[in-house]
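Running this now, will post back.
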Amino acid sequence: AMLEPLLSEDPTRHVGHPKEACPTTGAKVGLLHGDRCDELVAQAAAQWGSALIAAASSSQRYAMFDCTRPRTQQLFKVLVGDGDGGMDLDMFRKGLEAHSFQIEASSPEGKRLLRAVFKVAANEKDMMDVTEFRAALQRLKLHVLFQQMQSRTHRKQVEGCCLDWSPVDLYSKLVKSEDLYDHLLTPRAQQFTMRWAHYTEPDEYTLLSLGVSHQLHLRALGFYNSEQGETNMWVRGDDYNMLVPLFRLTEASRALLQKHEAESRSASAPQRRVVVELEWAQLYIFMSGQQDSIVTTRSAWRVPRVTQHLSGEHTQRAVHRQRHRHRRRRHVEDGRALAEHHLGKGLPLKVHNVSPKVEQHLDMFSHAFHELEQDYSELRIGGAPLLVFRLLGATLKSHVEVHTAYRARLEWFEDHIDEHAKLELAQMKRELGHHVRRLEALTQLVTRISTCTCFEAKVNVDGLRDKIIQLSRDIGEAMESCEMLLDEVKAQIEFKQSRSAFSITLIVTLLYPLQFLTGVYGMNFQNEAGQGGVPLLGMLTLDNSYFMFWGLGLLLTLPLMAWFRHAGLLHWH
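Update: finished.
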């Protein structure tokens, strides 16, 4: 009864023709467009998508929601064959069932619904090509996902932006949860040559929706939940999928670095100790084989465990190491410095002159939008490969800033080295080692990119690789400086220990005459009358015993002290 109004009339009457333009952007609408057709596809997704709904939160979700071009083309070739023919109704049903749709083709209502969806997807033709088949799969799976997203009571709001441009024009818009469905189904306008869609902190259902719409490598999206981050690259057909971990200083640590740089230019100002607190996220980059669209998603910024103790979140290992009084004091000072700047007392950050709303979503990549605002700029003309180079360049810039902060903190330790800095220098050396390993993985990624012949920005990518290698060498030099400072601290500790042992030995040596006299006085010498005495010293009476003991002890100790003084072993303060 619910489908009767849709199925009683010709459903293709409501299909938007590919030549019709979107009233907002002027883009070609494409297949399966129209409010009534959306209702038809929504009904089909609700009836056929029970298996997909159950798999949306399981480990099989990436395989079941995969709509990439290689998989759909392979399935279309298996169903249709090697000929140039299209897909008929029965092949269409088998293709949907291969993608886990449960179609009830035995009942009359199920047959009518399947036939109506086929006619809508094929634009009134009797046969369907691979592009129309992929569009039908995408629309059905998107409806399944959006129905699940709407049924959730506490769903996360989607935040992102989309930029379409040509050498002479630029169009940008923000993407919210209520606009996500229309945005994913609206193609780029005809007058534009490039599209860049960027999403921040998408949840699982949003990731799957983006993967279905943009034909992303869904398995790569699973690395968002990894603890340490991973650098990788996949090439599927002509499409490129890259996974890059992002590292940067927190806002408070960046403000401390800016103050340090301002004070270093002033000779009268005291040098400030820089606290290095990092945060990291995962960046996913997808570039289509036509090199006309790029999709990027960034996960939430998180603080690694190796730096959490600086902001007050003490781990058990960090608390265990806070045993020395001076190191605890420095630790508290560092935490207070970060807390002050977390409260907004730091210097204002330098930002580019871009739209605040767009910059909020582009974050560390706002400089790319700043370049896109200029007509006939290199980025507008260069296309997708050059945009990938700009994104990787922004990633390297954050690594350079992190190295600058570590170097500034290391310079402070060079001027304030003591035996209590051993644990902090050892921890800094470990963190620099982690940084080098991240750069090595980034170097391997850039090397793989430079070997791809499709990248027109190969010269720029090669230059970026050289900069990464040079930064790795600089960090290696910082690690060597840490090792030298650790050796110096070790030498100071060993000198202090040897000095303490020498002082104890000197005290014992000076007290040796008194120990000798104590032994002599402790012997039980007696005369014939049974009275105690000491040979050569006479009788031990109350009048002369203490005088003889202290007098002889002082008489033997003073020459010994004079000899130590003459030999330079004893100093008067």
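Residues 191 and 198 are 21 Å apart (CA to CA). More later if anyone needs it.
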